[in-house]
Input
Amino acid sequence: MRGGGLSSDSSGYIYGATADGDFAAGTEFGQSVIKLSQNGSQLQLADWFTPYNELYLDQNDLDMSEPVLVLPQQAGKHPDLAVALGKEGTIYVLNRDKMGHFCATCTTKDTQVVQELPGFAPEPGALVYWNNTIYTSGGQSQIKALSLTNGLLSKTPFAVTKNTTYGHSPVISANGTTDGILWQVYSTYMAAYDAVTLVKVYSNTQAPSGRDALPALSHFANFMVANGKFYVGGTSALAVYGLLK
Output
């Protein structure tokens, strides 16, 4: 999952996605999203979903490669949702209470899931949720903001950035439901975008004399926001960014 962690919900279930590997419905779970429960010291399979075209995905190294995004309780028909994304760029909105397993008769899309949106973020970073919005990012593509209403994603983004180079998994800082900033890093370049408009408001190249230079990053770098600061872990250093006083 590109360095991202497993996800969990308020009921204690744990969610993850798998990469290339063998698939046999119910027994082998390459290219799948899995839901695990805990029984004592053991994890047990509770539910799962595998895209109808898993063989094509496996043969073309198109992993289900990102952390599973667990959404807050939603209005609408399916209140308990999770969202998954793989290298192919398809967004899968899944019902956590009935994830859909594998549709052996499907030929163009998965009809047993809540929603499926193809082509949004090839070679993506992790999905990000804030303020009834899900953000996608991908290599040589735009960061896109999709509104979430009654448990369904809009098919058209309400805001996009200009094309970006390949990036890591973005994060968002905010003051509750206001002042949202989406942070993204591309190799040695860091940029911050207004989370409502996706207009760029900052980059680390603006500061003089390399003041805001990034440390060397690992292949699957992940970032964190805490106490109003943006933390970037490198291969030999930790950089912390915040407001100047």
Remarks:
- The chain has a mean pLDDT of 90.
- Residues 1-119 form one domain.
- The two ends are 37 Å apart (CA to CA).
- Residues 23 and 103 are 13 Å apart (CA to CA).
